[in-house]
Amino acid sequence: MRTDDVPSTDSMQVVGGSASRSLAKELAGQLGAGLAHVEVARFPDDECYLRIEGDLAGEEVVIVQTTCPDRNIIELLLLQDAVADLGMASVTTVAPYFGYARQDKKFNEGEPVSARALARAISATTDRFLTVDVHAASVMSWFEGVDAHNVSGHAEIGGFLREQGAELVLSPDEGRRDNAEHVAEVVGCDSDFLVKERLNGETVMMTPKSLDVSGRKVAIVDDIISTGGTIVRAAEQLRNQGANEITAVCTHGVFAGGAIAKLRAVCDEVYSTDTIENPTTAMTVASQIARTIQER
Ligand code: R5P
User: For a tag site, which of 16, 83, 137, 157 has the least CB within 10 Å?
Assistant: First the structure.
């Protein structure tokens, strides 16, 4: 369906996949929308079965499902297919964390552009697409014929860190310094980024470009924490440089392979938003997503 075909309606239903149930509920509350019940089960061979209960005919439907790990992608595609048969007025697909966004180019002939493949599959049955703090903005152009929007989670992270009393916001590298600057603006504190310097085969120094962390309450902010390797290295160095307290914060807590335990061993606190629901989730991006849906 094309965006210019979307009829206007005042009635909205949120359909939450099993990866994003809590965010879907929060979003429905923010939008004043209904929350459809979705039954999700697995066949003995682990294929997904689902059924959306309720009458969505004539409704604006908002599907919420994070696309990580892979089984959640299949569930999203099945949710989209089920919704498409229910006579809705329009469909907005929200993938709070857009998995595969880091695979946005091919390095060798014969490889897929994985982010593009996923964008094309999602685009087939939606009018709008929303994600949060997408890793590479260029990915959004692959949602062809779809009103695609990248929502920022920085206001939530900044507001949260202000309450925590953060005194300095750091990006783990220069590439993400804008994120740290936006977050620090909300906190009302300084920001900087870490510079890596290889001293020898085993030792890499990471120091803030301009500021001194000594005695300060520091927050390291990244879009994604996956293995935790980046933040663990940064936190160890900052501790040696005299940081008083170290908080690791990300929008998307992927936390692969026991990353939370590794992070908690070197950081005082670890927090993430609810784009991926996990034990460190302390902030919701629901209000930013709701605002974007209502503005469009
Ligand atoms: C990289 O460009 C991202 O912004 C993150 O810094 C990265 O994905 C973190 O990965 P890991 O937690 O595995 O070090």
Answer: 137
For 14-59, what is each residue's pLDDT tens digit? 999 999 999 999 999 999 999 999 999 999 999 999 999 988 989 9
Identify whether residues 158 and 123 lie together within a single domain: no
Give the residue whose CA is nearest to atom 10 of ligand 1: 226
CA dihedral 82, 151, 171, 188 (to 10 degrees): -140
Does 222 share its domain with 277? yes
Instruction: Please give the residue range of the domain that contains residue 95.
Output: 12-151
pTM > 0.90: yes
| Neighbouring residues of 18: CB distance < 8 A, sequence distance ≥ 6 | 38, 40, 65, 72, 75
Same domain, 134 and 23: yes
Residues 43 and 56 in one domain: yes
The CB of 228 under 6 Å from ligand 1? The reply is yes
Chain segment 68-107, per-residue pLDDT in tens: 999 999 999 999 999 999 988 899 999 999 999 999 999 9
Whether ligand 1 lies within 6 angstroms of the CB of 270 is answered as: no
Q: Is the CB of 134 under 6 A from ligand 1?
A: no
Mutate to test the pocket of ligand 1, among 220, 222, 236, 270 (most ligand atoms within 8 A of CB): 222
Residue at 27 is within a domain = yes
Q: Is the dihedral of CA 178, 183, 185, 189 positive or negative?
A: negative
116, 207: one domain: no
Active-site positions?
196
CA distance to 105, 106, 107, 127, per residue, from 110 (Å): 12, 8, 9, 31
Same domain, 232 and 243: yes
Here the tokens at position 44 are: 């003995």
Q: What pLDDT is attached to residue 2?
A: 35
Judgement on whether residues 20 and 147 belong to the same structural domain of the protein: yes
End-of-domain residue from the set 151, 181, 206: 151
